[in-house]
Description:
Layout: H1 4-18, H2 22-25, H3 27-41, E1 48-52, H4 58-66, E2 71-76, H5 79-89, E3 93-97, E4 110-116, H6 125-135, E5 136-147, H7 152-160, H8 174-183, E6 186-196, E7 200-209
Parallel strand pairs: 1-2, 1-4, 2-3, 4-5
Antiparallel strand pairs: 5-7, 6-7
The protein binds S-adenosylmethionine (SAM).
S-adenosylmethionine binds at residues 11, 15, 30, 53-55, 58-59, 76-78, 81, 99-100, 116-118, 121-122.
Amino acid sequence: MQTAKNRTRKLLREYTSLAPTYDQRWSTYIDASLSMTLKTVAGLPARRILDVACGTGLWLEILAQQYSDAALFGVDRVPAMLEVAQRRLGQRATLLEADAAELPFESGRFQLVTTTNALHYFADVPATLTEIRRVLDPSGNLVITDWCRDYLWMKVLNRVLPWTRHAHGHTLGRSELEQNLVSAGFELVDSKTKKIDGFWALMTVHARPAGMT
Ligand SMILES: C[S@@+](CC[C@H](N)C(=O)[O-])C[C@H]1O[C@@H](n2cnc3c(N)ncnc32)[C@H](O)[C@@H]1O
């Protein structure tokens, strides 16, 4: 069993060395996962948007095109990834080094929170979703895209990766994520899954704070 400290050390090591080449190395996967996310996000109203685990800022750059008047924020745990994001986004987004489970924002500040391709790293998914719920406006929206464990190869990866140098935490299945969201005070709006390149299986789940309809 990996300790939280071990996982953080692995995360910092993995993404500090990956940061300079991340965009090129993962471009096919990133394009597919972000366009899947965009289909769900398109049209959701927002004046302030937070991307949790923003990495090199590729998704924030898409959000900047979609939401030209919105204030954009990104947090990530790895400074080297944020440096790439900062070069990409300049003054267009406010970027902060922070853990997804301890967001440095007042409650109810965002109309839209997103996180893409990162949930499987989070050490404590229930606590992280509760924290996201805290910073989300009660009438806001949350959109998550991540690996989906409902498919064979993702099950295999979920078993193997914790034994490697990868900082992997745990890959959720779609209904498992949905249950976690409900427990954290969300209600589900929509969810979908998609396979990429015959290997990667992704899910996008859209939720909002419960009790707003
Ligand atoms: C696969 S990258 C995805 C980056 C970006 N969201 C994208 O879709 O291209 C995973 C990112 O999650 C970040 N990350 C992992 N665990 C985190 C945590 N607990 N808090 C904040 N960032 C985290 C990593 O530093 C890395 O930048």
